Amino acid sequence: MEKLKDFMLLFRLEPNLNYQSTDNEVAQQKKLWSTWVGGIAAEAKLVSTHQLGFTGKQLSADFTLKDGINITANQILGGNMVVKAASIEDAVGMAKGCPILAIGGNVEVRDILPM
Length: 115
Hints:
By secondary structure, the protein is of the alpha+beta class. The chain has helices at residues 23-42, 88-95; strands spanning 5-13, 46-51, 57-59, 65-67, 76-85, 106-111. A hairpin with a 5-residue loop joins strand 3 and strand 4. The model has no long low-confidence stretch (mean pLDDT 94).
């Protein structure tokens, strides 16, 4: 049996504050995500997944606290998923089906190092 390793998929998207998705668009996106995540789970390769909210606080090394989330290069981190794959190339293959790609987002695939 092939030894699988954990990889994290990080989902990023440039927010468009001037556009509000319709209920139909939201429902369609939920369906696409459910189908994609469900397919990975059906292969017993899903470890966990989380959607991140849009509120938060940022704590700096000097204990300065700032309201809001980090926006880097006009992108927000919208969530993550940990999957089991034989290689990073296999994890990238899984990421190619991610619905965020169809709406202009991107997926970063990272190996996970044990602590």
